[in-house]
DNA sequence: CGCGTTGTTGAACGACGTCAAACGTTGTGG
DNA sequence: CCACAACGTTTGACGTCGTTCAACAACGCG
């Protein structure tokens, strides 16, 4: 009686994997816990690399800064996700990792991890699978960014968020976005107005519903409707449920 | 008097790093060489994961397929780059890796690599840095995709290609694209017509020049002009050199 | 030589961005 | 408790960048 939606190509219980990983880390190496508040950054671009951070609670975004001031949200991170992997190559973090809410991260020294891996090879497996999964996830982001129209990208964003919660064993019919329309738009490569309009259209088509209090809480009657909307956009753009 | 452009946050000689890595692999574990021809795939999505592939020569693209038939070029790979890292997480490759020209890859078994790493820890460093660099590269792709107008994206693509060649010690003033306009467009999230027009405009502004023979060979008078064009687009869109 | 593939260019359309106005929410200080 | 400001969101009108559709040109190949 697992509560978890069974997504293809994923272990049946992601909850289990995350719990196991956290336990494994805790057992095999020193861990530094750190509480962060909304807006705090776990690390910043250019800072000397030393540690990886595993999200224990809260919601985080990864922001990539270009030299000329353009900035881009390149990833969202939930419990069990790792932060700081981009720093390994150059010994300096390449992004900012920013908390979108109060949360806790576990800092582990990278060198300590490598040393511990000699005695506990499973650590290596975990690290590699994490990085590999991250690569695949970004490939999927690029696919969405490049092939989906704005409305479908927003729908895809909502489904990604609910999937992430579902995999962590939380209720999936109701989500509270920790991001402003501007942040969502940045992440999805569009303006905040487009995000707002897309959400309004999704609500009009009853794919989502706004709760009475606040437009940041979103009720999702059935996830399948979201998925259908995304796919519908690729076949016959805008033919789905809309006014 | 080094021929290599000195990009920030990168070792001075990438040529050296690549050569060292190839040598290290060759010395410490069994390698299976494999010749591929244009259009051949090194591996395909869904195929059981077992090996990583290091590009020894040629040009490769990574293609991500969605269930509903959308497809997206998510990366370009040159000598020294690794293919197959996306397969580690699920034990199945998540993309297609396709040769864009005749080339050679070195196949190494992932399990053999992990075992060899016990005696040669440098192998681990190489693997981790490679994956980390790959993550950063994709963050940069997303930044370009989301924040740059079409013309600048094409300019960025050309600069990425020339940088890759320059880092490998090849001439940088002249490049031969191994991709059709459609492939470039797919990679950059736009149509082939937009790519063609962007190239024409860049040529009109003398940022690039077409060689007399074929529109696939592109001459680049000075890379700085490309860079300036990209940055110009972010500050005052379309204010650069154009008709 | 004829034909398929690839690339270029033009014209019309449409999706999305820009600009602007109005409203709701939250927090702060009088 | 209210007034006010700062911020976030929604919605409309309008402009534009990029797509779509189409015709044509340049190769490469049988």
TrEMBL record, chains A, B:
Task: Tell me the InterPro entries matching this sequence.
Answer: cNMP-bd_dom, cNMP-bd_dom_sf, Env_Response_Regulators, HTH_CRP, RmlC-like_jellyroll, Tscrpt_reg_HTH_Crp-type_CS, WH-like_DNA-bd_sf, WH_DNA-bd_sf
Q: Which domain of life is it from?
A: Bacteria
Asked if the keyword rRNA-binding belongs to this entry, the reply reads no
| Lineage of producing organism | Bacteria, Pseudomonadati, Pseudomonadota, Betaproteobacteria, Burkholderiales
Q: Which residues form the HTH crp-type domain?
A: 148-224
Annotated signal peptide: none
Pfam families per record = cNMP_binding, HTH_Crp_2
Could you tell me which species this protein originates from? Variovorax ginsengisoli
Which keywords belong to this entry?
Answer: DNA-binding, Transcription, Transcription regulation
Could you tell me which PANTHER family the record lists for this protein? CRP FAMILY TRANSCRIPTIONAL REGULATORY PROTEIN, FUMARATE AND NITRATE REDUCTION REGULATORY PROTEIN
> What SMART domains does this protein's entry cite?
cNMP, HTH_CRP
Protein known as: Crp/Fnr family transcriptional regulator
Q: Which CDD domains match?
A: CAP_ED, HTH_CRP
The coiled-coil regions, if any, are none
Q: Where is the Cyclic nucleotide-binding domain?
A: 25-84
């Amino acid at each position: 009686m697992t509560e978890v939606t069974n997504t293809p190509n994923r272990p049946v219980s992601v909850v289990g994997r995350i719990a196991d990983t956290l336990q494994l880390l805790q057992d095999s190496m020193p861990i530094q816990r750190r509480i962060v508040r909304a807006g705090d950054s776990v690390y910043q671009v250019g800072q000397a690399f030393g540690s990886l951070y595993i999200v224990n609670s809260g919601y985080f975004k990864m922001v990539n800064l270009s030299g000329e001031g353009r900035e881009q949200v390149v990833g969202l991170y939930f419990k069990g996700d790792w932060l700081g992997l981009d720093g390994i190559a150059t010994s300096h973090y390449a992004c900012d990792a920013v908390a979108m809410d109060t949360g806790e991260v576990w800092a582990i020294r990278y060198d300590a991890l490598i040393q511990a891996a000699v005695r506990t090879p499973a650590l290596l497996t975990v690290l590699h699978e994490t990085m590999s999964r991250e690569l695949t996830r970004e490939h999927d982001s690029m696919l969405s960014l490049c092939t989906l129209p704005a409305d479908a990208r927003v729908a895809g964003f909502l489904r990604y968020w609910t999937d992430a919660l579902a995999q962590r064993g939380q209720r999936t019919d109701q989500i509270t976005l920790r991001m402003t329309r501007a942040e969502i738009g940045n992440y999805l490569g569009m303006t905040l107005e487009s995000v707002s309009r897309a959400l309004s259209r999704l609500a009009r088509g009853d794919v989502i519903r706004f709760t009475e209090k606040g437009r940041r809480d979103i009720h999702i009657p059935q996830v399948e409707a979201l998925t259908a909307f995304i796919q519908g956009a690729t076949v016959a753009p805008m033919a789905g449920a809309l006014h």
